[in-house]
Structure formats: structure tokens, C-alpha cells
TrEMBL record:
Cofactor: how bound: Binds 2 magnesium ions per subunit. They probably participate in the reaction catalyzed by the enzyme. May bind an additional third magnesium ion after substrate binding.
The encoding gene: EXO1
One GO CC term on file: nucleus
Molecular function via GO: 5'-3' DNA exonuclease activity; 5'-flap endonuclease activity; DNA binding; metal ion binding
Protein name: Exonuclease 1
Domain of life: Eukaryota
Species per Swiss-Prot/TrEMBL record: Hepatospora eriocheir
Amino acid sequence: MERCVNITPEFMYTVLEMLSSNNIEYIIAPYEADPQLVYLQKIGYVDYILTIDSDLIIYGSEKILFKFDGRYVDEYDKNKLLKLDGGEFLSRKLLDICILSGCDFLPSIRGIGLKTAIKILKEVHTIEAFVKYCELKNKIVPEDYLVLFAKAKSFFLFNIVYDPVKECRVNLNELEEELEFLGTKENLKFKINDNLTINRHFKPLKFNKEKDVIKTNPIKINKDK
């Protein structure tokens, strides 16, 4: 049976202390871990992201390792999506489809799931036409749905992350005009309690290839997924 674990700041502090004492780099994301990981991949700081969360695909990750069981993983490669039937459409409209079918930032219009969103969007092409289609089908659409949709899309595209090279907060993708609802770019420390704060990024001062590389058994990647 799976159990939920309550991750407290004190628990995190213990883990972070262990990482830093063993010369292992860590980054505490300003807001969401998913866009932070995608940004690290985007700038070449990491090659793959190991996760069980498919949201990484929506944020734009190009290479993900899923379902790691200690020996095997399934590989997601964004480039392979284009080779599938309808892959070009999915590649262009994936974010829109996921938001329309319901996401953390915006619930779906009642009766609109993933398959329905794909079917309608293929027919009408734009979000405005999608909303109009739903209204003509007598579906209940909030008056400010288009505004809420744009806001949700901004969270996926421009979430604030930490750049370990520039050592500052930036947007996941370049943004022409700042959006206040995304949060602050001020480099605040991570608060453990009222008396203790720590830096959000620990970068090892030295790296000893023989000492600091953790040796493990080879992992077999299933590239057919």
C-alpha cells in the first residue's frame, strides 16, 4: 500500500545537510520543481529527468526517464512524437490540449476530456473557436475562461525558475513583459523556521572524479516508449 509522506522544512534541512556534507549539488526551486527541472535540461545542465510525473512533458522536457524500478526505465524522447500518426499536431498543440482537458491551473469545461479536446481542436484550430464551439453545444463556459486559459498557459511557459549558471531567478522561457502573478524574481533564501534560513543552491567547490562519482549498475533504457 502506498503511503503519503509529510515533507516538513526540518526534514528537508536534514536531507540538504546530508547532500552538502557529501559534496552533492542541490537546487531548491523558487516555486515548482517541474519547470525547474525542464529549465536545467534546456540549458544543458542535465541530460535526462527521472520522474513519474507526466507534467514534465507539458512543460517542454525533451528527454525523460519514467518508471525506474532499480534496473529498467522507459525513455520519452520528444523527437519521436513527430514520427507518430498525428504527431506534428500533438507536438504543436500539446500544451493547449492538456489545459483544455483540465490541469492544476484551470479545470476543464464540463464534458471535455483529453480525447474530446483533441477532436474539437483538430476541427476548429484555435482556443477562441474551441470556446465558441462549446457554447454552441450548450456547455457551461465561464465568462472569463479565455483569460484564465491564457493565465494557465503562462504558468506552463514562463514559470519562474533558478539559473545555477547566472545564479539568479529567470523565466522558464523568455518573457517580454513581466507577469506579477508568476511570483517574484528576488533571490530569497529557503526558510526552515523563524530562526533558520539556508541558500537555495549548493554548488560543490571541488569535484573529484574518482571520489565523487557514485558508481551504480548499468540501467537498461526501453527506447520503444
